[in-house]
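Q: What would this complex look like in 3D?
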Amino acid sequence: MTVPALALEHLTKHFGSTVALDDVSLEIRPGEVVGFLGPNGAGKSTALRVALGLLRPTSGGVRVMGHAAGSPDARALLAYVPGDVALWPRLSGEESLTLLEGLHGDVDAAYRARLIDVFDVDVHKRVRAYSKGNRQKIALVAAFASRADVLLLDEPTSGLDPLMERVFRECVSEAAARGQTVLLSSHILSEVEHLCARVAMIRSGRLVRVATIDELREHASVEFDIVGVSADVSTVAGVTRWERTSDGVKVTITGSPVPLLHFLATQPVTAVRTREASLEEIFLSYYDVAETRG
Amino acid sequence: MVALGVLSAVAIGIKSFRIIGGASGLSAMKGLLTSPAVAALYGKPYGVTTAGGFTQWKMGMYLALAVTMWIIFLATKLSRGAEDDGSWDLLVSGRTTHRRATATVAVTLVVTSALFGFVAAVTFAVAGESVVASGLYGVTLCCLSATSAALGLLGAQLLAPRRRASSYAAGILMAMFVVRMVADGVTRLSFLRWLTPFGWFEEVRCFDSNRWWVLAFYVVAFVVLTWCTVLVVDRRDVGEGRLARGDVVASPSALVGSVDGMIWTQRRGLAGTWAGVVALFAALMGLLIKPLVDFAHSNPSYVATLERYGYGSVVTSKGFVGEMGLFFSVAFAFLAVTSLHQLFADEGAGRLDVPLATGVSRRRWLNSTVAGTVGILVVTAALSAVAFNAGSFVAGGDVSTVEFFQGAASSLVLSVPVCGFYLALLGWVPRSALGVTSGAIIVSFIVAAFGPALQWPQAVLALSPLHHLPLVPLEPWAPWAVVWMLGAGVLLVIVGAVGYERRDLLSA
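A: Here is my prediction, written as structure tokens for the whole assembly.
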């Protein structure tokens, strides 16, 4: 049996009376790129910081390639890019890279040089003169150049321009192709949709769904624009929302479209247009459902 | 807190005056008071036959130095510090202008200065001193503090980040203090007193001739500094200093590739500054040894007075070195705390997240921090011994080099439990570590320095670790006290290390 690259095992974390993580379990296989989604304050960063050994779990635990989070073996396997990179202001970018690489131990020097080039960052400047985006680039260069087995990326593209975001996507794709594991926490859902095969959604400290993008789509709502129909479709199984338009009806269904198609067979349909939900809409649907339940 | 310090300093000065027998008791010290060496240390003695004048002379100069340093750090914190952390970006992007925000800080600093002056004046007045002289002293302290605040505020406009602004402003102030020392110590250079705010502080001559007109120097300095601040505020970007910074590193340091190298790189500025200041102080003290001892030998009544209040040892060269060890102990303790506190600052800012998550363990970083701090302390102590020895040698003193090193080594002992205390707090209640440890050092110093003269109970004196340390080289080492302090220090370091490994890392 393959050892998971990252395993959150019944992870619970309390800050005083606040429950930041509540019995979260998640396994990521080696070589997988997994998106970690959730609204602000859901517990994404807390989960990552526990996995990094920066926070201690209240109960449960995290294992990196079978090693306990925070152990020397686990640290050696990890690379990390926080959402707001803090470095020593007096050091230059190059010195910051020397520090991070010196402490981690491994670096692919040729790849590092290429990363500095493609991310277009002047490493001779002091960190205090960097913008947020440039600090982010330094952390990204250090993380990718380490060739670490597991990359934990916590909103790594915040502060990057669209060009650099594209470079980032290429780097993640290269890392995945090399067999590196990536857990990507991000609010840029198009980025997650593009890079990740699987998504874990968290809300209020609880994991609400772990699924592939395709599985999510299967169970997500689909929108139909049906021209030529004016009948009431609310009684059709699977219809969650409908409204009349100038030339027909707009219907949203969840689950199988078969009942709707059967119904339409009896109607004077002149045209049908469908649109699949984006990851953003899927994400929002989970958020809305959870909100309603909460 | 600072206002409380002002109150305590004034109260202790007045109490000391009464204990030594007031004006009649002072007659034995007349020669000493006019000695250039003592004047360099404490300033010119004006009106010392009154409790107010004596307090101003005995406590005033160092009270002034403490207040001015504190207000400079407050000025840069409220202005440059707020710009460094980005909080002013929001503030000045609204209806508040950059100039108005700076003006608000200036007003806050002036009001704070006025509070210090008010506390000092009321304390003197309540103790029975002339209301006019007490008021003048309060106004003078307020003016000195406000002028220093203006210097700090101008530094914050010219330089970024805050540490750089604070260093330059505090450096200028320290230079002004040294100029005052030279002016008071060398008669032919006494005119230099008019070039420094600490010299004006003396020349007001509170509780003597009460020269109000000297305050005009402060007013002019304050107006000029504030005017410069206004000019610079309007000509610079928010978040940047007016003076350009060297933001390009031509030859990167290879030292930063290891934890120990990084710890040293971070602290070399701190180590250099502290070593320089401590060595300067030690050299000045070395120059004072012989004149003070010679004076004591020619004034038996002065010696009797000192002995009566527990300071008899100062009348010998070795005793003086031992007594100075008290000040060095406190300086080394604060140096240790400042060096260790960098760990908390880095953690709080989130700078340790990546290194500790993907590189080294917390224990390794902590060990290197402690080792680096110990190294800085040992080098600073050695330099202080060399400088003390050099000063003494120039003045013709008779303390040997080995004895100076013994004294410096003894002064390092306090730093061990202080390091342990700080680290124990850092490990378990990190946000309180700096404040509580600094407070404990100050209280220990006050108890040890003033307790004997104020005849505090033995039980109170015993609370200060400094009270248990012998006056090396006059007295032999007290092995049990040293072992006890080292043991307690090491134990506290272990307790702190355990807590530091177990707790959550603070996040930015």
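A: To summarize the key features: Residues 350 and 508 of chain B are 5 Å apart (CA to CA). The interface with chain A takes residues 160-161, 245-250, 252-254, 256-259, 262, 265-266, 346, 349-351, 353-361, 502-505, 507-508 of chain B (CB under 8 Å).
Q: Very helpful, thank you.
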